Each structure stands twice: as structure tokens, then as C-alpha cells.
Amino acid sequence: MGYGKIRYEQLPIYKSTSVLFYEESIEKDQENYVLLAYHPELRTYSDFGGKHQNKRDRTFFDTAFRELLDELFGWKIIPYKFLDEVIYTLDKLMEIEQGINIQIHVKDRVHALIILNTEHLKRLLQICKNSGRTSLFYDDFPDNAYDLIHKRKYTNKQHVTDINFFAISSLSFESVDPRTHEDLSRLQKILERRYHHYNR
Q1: CATH number of 2-198
Q2: What confidence score (pLDDT) does residue 182 get?
Q3: pTM to 2 decimals?
Q4: What is the Cα–Cα distance from 87 to 67, expressed in whole angstroms?
């Protein structure tokens, strides 16, 4: 069994996994943006994700998307069947549509970073809305990134309050947690290499 072409037994386990959504500029001098979440107890912004849980996570994909859906919508219990649908759909999206790519980067075989773009985010929201599940953080389930950001409600049950896009160059070290700062540096290098590759 596996996600599309990827089999569970072929996937390693990492202590933590994060998900970083980006919006890439097509012009050299324009900004690249990332979607970050504010954690009030830490007073910092971060990407999405968390630590591997042995009793819940089969792979680092489970870790990434379980944590992501918890932080976005407050979903504490997510069936494996639904996680499989999310991961399989995004995997197929990578195969079908040009210019869309899922990239996985690993640091010291401890932390994995899954890099997704705004088209992945849009498809993720569609899957979640079509599931019929609701969220205490939204009166109407968000259809797009604008709704995800601007129609979010605040409750006392949220680990994440504000969600927003930020220009990578505008983020200070103090405003972003250390792990996310490393993830952003990795993303920036990837985008720079990609830009030079397509503009040679």
C-alpha cells in the first residue's frame, strides 16, 4: 500500500516534518511569498508541521498533513483514508499539471521539509471542503487562500491564530522560529536555482 507511486515501506521516518507553501515570482526582481502561521504562545511565525508521533504516523507525510490540518482547521482526529486522499491527490497533481512540483528536502535525516505551491493549497482546500467536515475557525469553509486568511475566526482553542503571506525578504530572524528560518533559506536557494535554470 502507498500514496500513488510511493509505497509506505519505502519512506523513512523523521523526527519532524514541516510544510511550506510559496507563491513564486516570475520576475527576477519581484518578491517570493510564503504562507506562515502565528503561534501566540511562542510569539513567532512558522511554517506548518510538527513532530512525528509513533502511534499515529505511518510516514513523514502523515506527520506533515496531520499537523497541517490541525493547525489550519483544528482537526485533532484525521482518518488514514482521508490523509491518503489528500496525499494521493497532490501527488497526481504533480504528474498532471506542468509547473507544479512537490519537493522534499531532508536535513541530517532528522527534519523533512515538504515544499508546495499555491496551486497545491487550492487543491487541498477543495478536498477538505468536499469532505463535508467543518472547522470552528471558519463560519464557511474557505475556498481559497484569501478566505483562509481573511475569514479565520479566533477562539481559545487555537494554537495558530493569524495566517498570512509574507515576502521572504521582509522576515526578520526574530519574527520567525529558528527551524522555519532554515526552511526559508532552503526554499530561497531552490527558487534562485530554478529562476536561473529557466532564464539561461
Answers
A1: 3.90.79.10
A2: 86
A3: 0.85
A4: 13
Whether residue 24 contacts residue 117, with contact meaning beta carbons closer than 8 Å, is answered with yes
Cα torsion angle, 87, 91, 93, 94, sign? positive
Contact call for residues 33 and 166 (beta carbons, < 8 A): yes
Which residue has cell 490541525?
A: 70
Confidence category of residue 75, pLDDT binned at 50, 70, 90: very high
CA nearest neighbour of 70 among 55, 88, 83: 83
| C-alpha distances out from residue 9 to 5, 13, 21, 60, 112, Å | 12, 10, 27, 12, 17
What is the per-residue pLDDT across 91-146, written as a single tens digit (0 to 9) for each? 776 544 433 445 566 666 788 888 888 888 999 999 999 999 999 999 999 999 99
Q: β-strands 16-23, 48-51: how paired?
A: antiparallel
